[in-house]
């Protein structure tokens, strides 16, 4: 076997998505070294279309953390959303209910800001690595990998952070007896499109209809992001533009509202599920973001949860390297999971309230409308939604 080149660092970070890069950035600011390894190329990540809502706490991490203030210039502040059902829209006024807002700023831009910042600061982030495997997570962790030039390395670290996404390699290194996996599958998926069209509405519209769910979101003045509920086995090739716009019209048009149509420039079926891996730590391996949990996109929580994990995990590493105390590292999993389960509940609730199951009987359909009415007609019901959507206050 060829000789591996040995590298050492304090924290090895698997995955250069927003969670991995944000952690590396926060550590660097505190004088803690890290190396970030990513199997995808920079270009591949930059070209993946992802979701787009940031809680105020996530925006603060980007702006106050010195990553970028582009979110304030190029992002759009949204002070509410519309819930649309029975052909009528009902506004949930985030500012009026809980004094908060969210920002529409796609995850791809968060990635671009973070990767540019790490590069400018001389951070060690290696894209397109292959054969990355982690070892000795209960003692002195190591990562074996081959870099983009074919050079083989052994990276030695005090800790490994597995921020390697929903198909995490790190997660499966934890012995089965030491972890529990929680799953929930849904009988629907989202058909997502990018369309060249003007905005249909100032705010996002989450629509429930007898034909199923639809979400009208946005990207720029001229490109819009929209989704409609579909079967998880759906094939995008069966959907031409007419059929796509018909699906939107039947779910959202009516009472004076019409979705603005245009050429469809991207279409994808997005499968989703609810998943939690607990605890989020084993030995010297810490999981963060999608590696530890995924939520259905209806609550717009995925990226925000990942950034929350990183904020809490950073506090643990910072405290350990500055005082030698492991108290906050030991508290990481419990603190992170506290918010993860709130987000699981919220995302499950939004998903089940807004989607229409193919086999829904009359009772289920009428009950669902009762549920939607009870949310929009009650300040308390609306405030629960507003508080969860904008991100719960009082980070622990
Ligand atoms: C998006 O703009 O892609 C988006 C917005 C809100 C969601 C999901 C996706 O809940």
UniProtKB/TrEMBL annotation:
Residues 9-347 form the FAD-binding domain. Keywords: FAD, Flavoprotein, Monooxygenase, Oxidoreductase. Pfam families: FAD_binding_3. Gene3D superfamilies: D-Amino Acid Oxidase, subunit A, domain 2, FAD/NAD(P)-binding domain. InterPro entries: FAD-bd (IPR002938), FAD/NAD-bd_sf (IPR036188), RIFMO-like (IPR050641). One of its GO terms (molecular function) is oxidoreductase activity, acting on paired donors, with incorporation or reduction of molecular oxygen, NAD(P)H as one donor, and incorporation of one atom of oxygen. This is p-hydroxybenzoate 3-monooxygenase.
